[in-house]
Amino acid sequence: MGERTKTIVAGIAFDSYVMNASGVRDTTLEELKAIADSGSSAVVMKSSTMEPRQGNPEPRYAYFILGSSRGREVQGSLQCMGLPNEGYRKYVKFARIIKTGCGKPVFASVAGLSEKDYPILVGAFQDGEADAIEVNVSCPNLEGKALIGYDFDQVRRILDKIPKQPKPIGLKLPPYLEQRQIQEMADIVKKYGISFITCINSIPNALVIDGTQERPLIRPKKGLGALCGGCIKPVALGNVKMFYDILRGKVSIIGVGGISSGSDAFDFLLTGADAVQIGTCFEKQGPACFARINRELEEILERKGYKSIEQARGKLKFLGE
Ligand code: SIN
Predict the structure, then answer these.
(1) Comparing 62-71, 263-272, 297-306, which segment has the lowest mean pLDDT?
(2) pLDDT, tens digit (0-9, with 9 covering 90-100), for 99-117
(3) For the residues of 115-133, what is the DSSP string, one character each?
(4) What is the residue with the minimal CA distance to atom 8 of ligand 1?
(5) Does 27 reside within a domain?
(6) CA distances from 142 to 23, 199, 310 (A)
(7) Ligand 1 within 6 A of CB of 271
(8) What's the whole-model pTM score?
(9) What's the mean pLDDT in 206-227?
(10) Where residue 321 falls among pLDDT bands split at 50, 70, 90?
(11) Which residues have a catalytic role annotated?
(12) In this structure, is residue 222 part of a structural domain?
């Protein structure tokens, strides 16, 4: 990894700007070891629940090409996984195994099915080997359950009760569509001493139809799933920018949503992200994507004369300035 793309998230040093996103090829120990052996600058584990879960019926994931924009194919994926995972006790063990000898940060991710799960889940990882804990308040795929990140009082109640030390706590956030939602969430982030935010999780309740078959691409929720990949990148960038304008480097921001090249990563860097996570592209291309995207970002930074992430972070220029 080159020097230019070293970064810091929540006070933790990362060897590069690019890591895996929770939820993609990170559920089993074998998958986590593959991420540890890859160019990903961290190992982010699948969101774990109190008990193991099978998740939703298959097919629950579909990759598609939406069209092309500025000479590039715009890809997307639709997923309604339903939090398949091995239960948090396993991930506490996995974090210990992965930490041994891997030399990179390990991030736990937790998803409660009810408010009372969160203190237990976070507490288990606070006592374990993971370096940081991403609290997922944005899983869009649980039928009959409201998406927590849109209920700010519920987020406050959860944050009131979870143990916030010694490991840094992050929030994995849903996409927000209004500035006032971003402001309210940023206020919560500041009030509770959250160290990093990961934005955005996928866009809920999207529908992609196979017109030939006259039916949706996936089975759960009558075809409604969460949209990921290149087609959500503008929304993700908008959220990162709005949070960065308020948080201004005091809280780390991990950008996620449609990054499949160094140029995508550079857009997130200009917008204010301290690091990026890769989901759909990792699912499609496998672990080689991390080193490639980081190398492409290195080349862009070198060409433009930026010597570090810090020099380029948040340096987006505006028309008319
Ligand atoms: C899932 O397992 O349903 C995805 C989790 C998430 O997007 O938060």
Answers:
(1) 62-71
(2) 998 999 999 999 999 999 9
(3) TTHHHHHHHHHHTSS-SEE
(4) 139
(5) yes
(6) 14, 19, 38
(7) no
(8) 0.98
(9) 97
(10) confident
(11) 139
(12) no
Residue 239 Cα to ligand 1 midpoint, Å, equals: 19
Residue 25 lies in a domain: yes
Interval between CA 83 and ligand 1 midpoint (Å): 5
Runs of H (alpha helix) within the chain: 29-36, 88-102, 117-126, 152-161, 179-191, 233-247, 262-271, 280-285, 288-304, 309-312
Kindly report, residue by residue over 9-18, the tens digit of the pLDDT: 999 999 999 9
- pLDDT value of residue 308: 98
Q: With a cut of 80, say whether residue 36 has pLDDT above it.
A: yes
Q: State both tokens at 80.
A: 């309604």
Total domain count for the chain? Answer: 1
Ligand 1 neighbour 24 (Cβ under 6 A)? no
Which atom from ligand 1 is nearest to the alpha carbon of 226?
7
Q: Answer yes or no: are the C-beta atoms of 212 and 155 closer than 8 Å.
A: no
Cβ of residue 141 lying under 6 Å from some atom of ligand 1: yes
Position 50 confidence tier, pLDDT thresholds 50, 70, 90 = very high
Select from 78, 274, 259 the least CA-distant residue to 168: 274
- Residue linked to tokens 């809280």: 251
CATH code of the domain containing 201:
3.20.20.70
* Separation CA 108–CA 201 (nearest Å): 16
In a domain, 211, yes or no: no
